[in-house]
Amino acid sequence: MPKTEEQCKQMRDDMRNKILKMSSLYFARNGFGDTKISDLAKHIGIGQGTIYLYFKSNEELFDEIRSAADNKEELKKIKILRALPIPAQTKIDKISEEVCKHLADDEEYCVRITLQTQLLLERDDMYSDDLYKELSKIIKQGQKEGSVIKKDALYLADLYWGNVYLYA
What we know:
The chain is mainly α. The protein is built from nine helices and no strands. The longest helix is centred in the N-terminal third of the chain and has 26 residues, at 5-30. The chain is elongated and about 70 Å long.
């Protein structure tokens, strides 16, 4: 019996999602540098042509993966938490608890953190990232309260996110 239009669309969507997910895993493990479509196809277990059916170029695929690796949700949560009238130590504990929970249970979160970090490392101005800036504001609050050591707040934020990256 021939497949319906809906079934065909579902199969195309499933393949596109598989390519994105498996490519994200590949990049998280190997980085974005010099990766070729042939490397990804081999990793996914499909032909190169299949990837090109869904993405016009490796740049288009890379861009989509980069977009999916954004930190908007984490940033939103940290901004809300930063605005609360509670001690900085409590804020840092809540961020850490949430991060640890996701690192333990959510492979996609780990991939996203890894990709975000790799993308930040490619930039010359990684400390201008909003996630670093927001955490450094909480750190500065903690320094005023005496619960965080007196060091450069952006440097401490970098240490924090660097450890998260290592766990991811």
